[in-house]
UniProtKB/TrEMBL annotation:
Pfam families per record: Bac_luciferase
Source organism of this protein record: Winogradskya consettensis
Protein name, UniProt field: LLM class F420-dependent oxidoreductase
Stretches assigned to the Luciferase-like domain: 18-259
GO cellular component, one term: cytosol
């Protein structure tokens, strides 16, 4: 397994209206010792400039989209962005790619069919544009996409999963590929308040078949998916509690085989406020 990395996954970095505020937050994370910043690239046609802004405004921290939708940006576009970022900031930009979800992709009339075949075709396009497999990582949940992550990318960036999935993903990837799951957390010791915040997040994801079908493979049922998730499911997917308890939940993913955990601190769906205090507290324990 590669050196253990502690990273950040936070919608604030795209949601912040102020580039300066985003760079200020990224700079603090860099000083705290976090390895990489992940955030969604949204559903526009190009990789958002915010990724390059953060690279230009910091010195060492990595930046990665989690993810660029393969239905919205062309291989040529993302390859050009990645090549430019690599020239300016060698080794700091990792291209995260994903097949997204039918309900999101079909909003603009795109026909969401054969996402695995679409990803293979997309990777062929990146190969043609001379983007090396080591410069890209795939959002992967099921066995086929995990195998593709092993064979044609630097590794896998699973989202909304459990430590049991992390263990399965490590087995599928083998020892030499990067495994960097996103793990959402709630830094709140009161069980009712913590689970209420968690359910503001889980409710939307439990309406997406990609996630529920993956969870079913590990024994979760429709009963667990109802009403934002059973207590047992919420507790399995979302570590919550004191910073020490949250860190213990994150550690389960490292023990299961993660090289890097991208921590998303849930703060009630507020994408315009950066939860700096929580990341400071977690850094003192995990880094």
């Amino acid at each position: 397994m590669a050196q253990r990395l502690v990273s950040v996954w936070q919608p604030f970095f795209l949601g912040s209206e102020s580039t300066e505020a985003a760079i200020e937050a990224a700079s603090e994370l860099e000083q705290l010792g976090y390895s990489r910043i992940w955030f969604s690239a949204g559903f526009g046609e190009n990789v958002p400039a915010r990724f390059r802004d953060l690279l230009d405004g910091t010195r060492t921290i990595g930046v990665a989209p989690g993810i660029v939708s393969i239905w919205h940006s062309s291989p040529a576009e993302v390859a050009a962005f990645t090549a430019d970022a690599e020239r300016a900031h060698p080794g700091r930009f990792l291209l995260g790619l994903g097949a997204s979800h039918a309900v999101l992709v079909e909003q603009d009339g795109t026909d969401y069919r054969k996402p695995y075949s679409k990803m293979v075709e997309y990777l062929d396009g990146l190969d043609a544009a001379a983007l090396a497999p080591e410069q890209r990582i795939l959002a992967a949940l099921g066995p086929k996409m995990l195998t593709l992550s092993r064979d044609r990318a630097a590794g896998a960036h699973p989202y909304f999963t459990t430590p049991e999935h992390t263990a399965e993903a490590r087995t599928a990837l083998g020892p030499d590929r990067l495994l960097a799951p996103e793990v959402a957390v709630v830094v709140e010791a009161d069980p009712a308040a913590a689970r209420a915040t968690a359910r503001q997040y889980t409710t939307g994801y439990l309406s997406l078949p990609n996630y529920t079908n993956n969870l079913r493979r590990f024994g979760w049922t429709d009963e667990d998916f109802a009403d934002g998730g059973s207590d047992r499911l919420v507790d399995a997917v979302i570590p919550w509690g004191t910073p020490e308890q949250v860190a213990a939940g994150i550690e389960k993913h490292y023990r299961a085989g993660a090289d890097e955990v991208a921590i998303q601190v849930l703060n009630g769906g507020d994408a315009k406020t950066f939860p700096a205090e929580a990341f400071r507290a977690l850094a003192t324990i995990l880094i």
